[in-house]
Amino acid sequence: MRIVLARLGALLSLCVLAACASTPTYNPTTFSAEIDQAKITANPIKTVVIPHVNLGAPSRNYLEKEAPRIDGMIAGYLKENGYKVIPQREFQQRWSTGVRAFGNPIDPTTGKVNMRTFAQIMESIRDDMQKEFKLDAFVFTDLMELEVAFNIGMKHLARWDGVSRKPALQGPGDGVSVGFDWNQLAAVASLQIAIFDTQLQRVYFGRGGLDATEAIDTRSSSGRFTRRRNMLENETHLNEGIQLAFHPLIEMKAWPGNP
User: Fold this and answer.
1) Out of 22-36, 108-122, 165-179, 236-250, least confident range
2) Residue 128 class from Cβ within 10 Å (0-12 exposed, 13-18 middle, 19+ buried)?
3) C-alpha separations of 68 from 72, 76, 142, 180 in Å
4) Using CA atoms, how far apart are residues 67 and 63, in angstroms rounded to an integer?
5) Kind and range of the H or E element at 37?
């Protein structure tokens, strides 16, 4: 009987540990997505395309370089969850045609977007892609840069848009000076998702944190952050941000937004 009870106790302990391991840690910075469930229910989204352009102003150049790779990961995530994703080149070709017809809506000098021209191009793309592919929605994937401080706890964590990240080091050294100012702000990146139906009405808006775009410069005696040479390389971090940005449209099992 004692052996049986001991085994039962061990099994219960394992179950408790497993439950704890699967329970996400609450993160108060988790973004609360906006979803128009009524429109999505009335017109289910099955076939989508990921535009290569931002919904708003263009991302910074060093983030824009990473956009195609991250869009590829997003396409894979959508496919895994039952969506048909039209190749991005189909949108790119039609966007170029639209720019020739209506002009470029993005001012290359200021980065400002002429929304009237943008809408004209989007309408022409929508009409063509609906006819050829039975398109249901556009999934815009903007890479945004924010500023936060790595000043939480002994591990010096930064939290934003649902994620917690440790600071990275860059340079010949392997440590940080005692007087380092942990309250100074550093640049970090987030993924913003905006989904528009074929009426060009927004039906979903979400955001998830990705990773820091700056690291601590170990060459600096005063201690400062500098832009990372290797940007957004951690696929685990990227996948977490993608899942956060799509929740609850695609449910994230370990969503950290529940207190």
Assistant:
1) 165-179
2) middle
3) 6, 12, 11, 36
4) 6
5) helix 37-42
Q: Quickly tell me which residue has 């860059």 as its tokens.
A: 170
Helix, strand, coil percentages for the chain (3-state, nearest 5) = 35, 25, 40
Give dist(CA 93, CA 106) in Å, integer: 17
CA atoms within 13 A on the CB side of 77: 23
Please check the confidence at residue 13 and state whether its pLDDT lies above 60: no
The Cα 218–Cα 207 span in angstroms is: 31
Following DSSP, what letter does each residue of 166-217 receive, concatenated? PPPEESS-S---TT--TTSEEEEEEEEEEEEETTS-EEEEEEEEEEESEEEE
pTM of the predicted model as reported, rounded to 2 decimal places? 0.89
Instruction: Name the nearest CA neighbour of 125 among 107, 106, 138.
Output: 138
Tokens describing residue 213: 């775009």
Query: What does the pLDDT read at residue 111?
Result: 86
Q: Which of 168, 145, 144 is nearest to 157 (CA)?
A: 168
Question: What are the pLDDT digits (tens) for 122-148?
Answer: 999 999 999 999 999 999 999 999 999
pLDDT at 9 over 90: no
Could you identify the residue written with the tokens 């840690």?
Answer: 25
Q: What is the mean pLDDT of the chain?
A: 90
* pLDDT tens track for 99-120: 999 999 999 888 899 999 999 9
Cα dihedral sign, 104-106-107-108: negative
